[in-house]
Every structure is written in structure tokens, then in C-alpha cells.
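ok trying again, last paste got cut off:
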Amino acid sequence: MGQGTKSSYTVMPEGSITTPKGFKAGGLHCGLKKTTRHDLGAIVCEVPATAAGVYTTNVFQAAPIKVTRESIQAGGLLRAVIVNSGNANACTGKQGEADAYEMRGNFAEAIGVPADQVAVASTGVIGELLKMDRVLGGIKELPARLAATYDAGDDFCQAILTTDLTKKEACVSVTIDGKTVHIAGASKGSGMIHPNMATMLGFVTTDAAIGGEALQQLLRQVTDLTFNMITVDGDTSTNDMLVAMASGLAGNSELTQAHPDWAAFADGLRYVCEVLAKAIARDGEGATKLVEVQVRGAVSDDSAQAIAKTVIGSSLVKSAVFGADANWGRIIAAVGRAGQPVNPETVDIRLGEIVTMEQSRPVGFDEDAALEYLKGDTVVIHVDLHGGEGAATAWGCDLTYDYVRINAAYRT
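nice, full thing came through this time. structure:
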């Protein structure tokens, strides 16, 4: 098992959502999807875990979000999260709400924990009622599938996918008080991904001891730097949710901002969430490339974030990247419409190492070299405003013919 050391954390390539102490997971096919892919999964903690959540900003919020908010607010503790794919249980009225509560209650009973310590998440088609006979049948079988193994974590990852082509997971270890603490994450997301949300669905487990208020504050801060800095298509879903659970079984003293190892833990959490966020952007529906926009020299970090989001979300920029067209004019146009203070005389733009603009003036560059660079599977756009110390990075993908094909036939 190879491991790579990064900053204050150690990357664990073969870690999973079950690596932190106290966590089991699993997944199975209950019949919500037309294929035989898993469509029901769960994460369970052997002790009440400190919990935090970040949710979609969409006005139309799916029934599971109401249930999960209620569970976490009840005491800030969770024992489990139950997740289905293939059906969003969104815009389904009182019946959908009742179904979400029934999922919570039945799974709580199946694993022997209080109902208000179970979170619920759903993803899939909007506006259709869940086939509850299939869900409840799956819930009866699910406890036997739960395990603290990598394969069980993989089953969970597979159970939460919809149009995703690949599972998305990350894991690191961090030394806190001389003890090894693990932080792991799993997510899904491919379409309806846009800044100012959590993610389509995301789950973080850790065995660190940390209070609910501290975890909630840190999760929000990390989300703003990772999941809120990606976009695939400009649409924010009704079901976006990020839930974190901390078992406290690593044995460290409780983490607060005053703890000497707080920065190391925050670093590790940010790394996990950034890996997941970039995986979602790379796996955008129909995408062929991961696009990264780095903005420097803005008047503030917030301003840099707004500009980076505007560039990464531009359909014209995304289309140019897909076509391997070094059309830097689309980039500068996006910068100029972001609504942020920018000196129109001092902007530099690079595509990778290829300079296309300096001090807001075009620079002659090798078109063939730019073509070859843009044909790669990762494209980095650098924008330097020379106007301050603000900086931000956003991630997205190219806009392809397949994106239209996939979404034109999503329900069929």
C-alpha cells in the first residue's frame, strides 16, 4: 500500500470512507435503478458521532434535506446516514416527506439506533415518488452488508452514483496529539453542479474528537474553498448535501481552533474535500477535460473567487477548451463581466505556460503548442490581475456534445 506525504497530512490511496475508526458502510441494489448497479447505501458509526452539514441553496429543497437538517439539529449527533440513488425524492409533497421519514425510521430500527440520529440523502430524477416497497426491502438486507472494509466502502461509493462514470473518494491521516487521526470522504456528482452549494452528495468520516460547533464552522469554511468552487453546468440541485461525522475514537484531545494541531486537521479536511470536488468537475457529464482557473492579484480573495467562478462557468470558455481553441478573448470577456474591480490595463493570461496576454495586450504565441496543450486532459488557465493580494482557484470541465445528449435523455 503506497502512501504519499503532503504537507501536514499523509495521503492514503487505498483508504476509504470506512478507514476512520468506528465506521462501517455498505451498498446493494434494491431496484430503484433500471440497471443492476447499487442504488441503496449506508454509513454507520458504532458510537454517536459529532455531525455537521452543508446544504443546497436552491429554494426547492428535497424532502431528505429537511429530515437530515432535523436529525443534525436535534443534538448534533449521528449514528448513520442512509442514501438512495435513482430517485431524488424532490418536489414530491407531503408523501415524499413521509417517505423520507419512513426511510429514516426503518433504517434506525434495522440497526438499533434512535431515529433522530439517522440522516437521509437521495439523488436522481426529480418529481417522482420513491418505490418504497423496494427501498424498505433493501433496508432490511442492508445491515448484513455493512462492514469496516475497503470493499464495503466501495459498495457505498457505487450506491450513490447516478450519471457518474467513476466513484469519488479520498482519505488522509493526520497526527494530532501524537495520535493518528483519519479523514475520509466519498461523493457523487456529474451534472447539476454549480458554486454556492455543497455538492451533489458528499460524506466525510473522521475518527477525530471534535465538537459540533467547531466541525460545522470548519466544514463551511472548507466547502467555500472546495465544493463551492466547482461548476459543471450552472445548475444547483434540489438535493445537494455534504455531511460530516466524527467518531472521536482516535483518542486525541478535543479539537478547537486553539488546539496546536488544528491547522493540520483543517489542512487534511481541505485536501479530502478538494480531491472530491475536482473529481466531480473532471467527471462532469460528457466532459473530456478537467479545467482549473487560477486567479491571482485580485483586490481580495472574495473578488478572486467571483472572477474564477465566472471564468470557469462560461459556456464560451468551456466550449473553446473542448475544441482546443486558444481563444483567450473569451477568458478576458468573462473576467470583465464578473462584476469585480479590475484594472483593464494590467491583466495577464496564460494557458498552462503559454502566455497569451500581458498587461491586457495580446502576445504572439505558438498556436500549435497551444493546440497540443489544450488537447490534454487537464487545462489550467492562469489570470493575474496585478491589483492586490487576493487569490482563488476554481474547477470545472469542458462543454461537449455528449453533455446535451446525456441530459436530453436523462429520464429515459
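cool. The CA atoms of residues 26 and 146 lie 5 Å apart. Confidence is low (pLDDT under 50) at residues 1-5, 191-199.
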